[in-house]
Each structure stands twice: as C-alpha cells, then as structure tokens.
Amino acid sequence: MPDTDSATSTTEERTREVLHRLRETGHRITPQRAAILRTFIGHRGHPAAEDIHRELREDFPMMALSTVYNTLSLLAEMGEAVAVSPATPAARFDPDTGDHCHLTCMRCGRIIDLPLEECAKAADIAEAARARGFRPVRQMHQIFGYCPDYAE
Q1: pTM for the full predicted model
Q2: Phi (first) and psi of residue 79, to 5 degrees
C-alpha cells in the first residue's frame, strides 16, 4: 500500500511545478484552476472532466464544467496530462504521462494501466519509429476488450 504522506507530497510538488509552468507561459492561476490541477494530479485513475467537476462542486459551486475541460485540455497540450480515447463517449485524462499501455473495457469504460515493459514488443514500436527518423517522446498503447468484471 502506497505511503499516503509520500503520495500527498508528490502531488503537491508536481502541482507546484505545473502551476509555475502555467504562470511562466502567461496563464492565469485561479483558485479553481489550482484546485482542478491538484485534484487531477492526485487521481490514480483516468478521470473524466465530469469526475473532477463533481469532486470540486462543493468547494466551487459556480465553476463551469467547461472550466475543467479547458484546464485538462491545457494540461494535455503542455504534456502534463494525456487525453485517453476510451470506449466511452466521455473524454478521459491520465495524470500519468510516463510510457505505459491502457487496457480499456468496452463494456464499463474502465481503464487499467499496464507498465510498458509488460506490453509485449511495445518498445519495438518506438525503435521502428526511430529507424524512420521519428523522435518518439511518449508511448501510449491502448488495448480494447473486457475487464475481469465483464470477461465472458
């Protein structure tokens, strides 16, 4: 089980770093944006904007859902989030920007992270890209199927 204090300090540290980058690039830092960022970075799943909005509704009752979408989209543009293409209509975002694979359930929409080293031959894809003069920055592979709750 992860150390909660360690996870909290990591979340706070990354939040401070991203807020600093936002300021440096001329973006306004509002209390809502800071809360969205902190909540998103603290997630261990792949939340939709609606999930973040729902979590923050009590503290920011007037915050529009579009504010959450815009902030998450901005984070994705900056490389601080990854937009995930799930088997569900809601856009989902991943705070884990490291190389890994996604296992996406086509029934419930659950997304499970799989470390890249467990994705057979995934490293070969980046190597093939390099051989063609392409410089890979990040790898995200997605496998669609059924999670253990819905596997038949």
Answers
A1: 0.72
A2: 85, 15
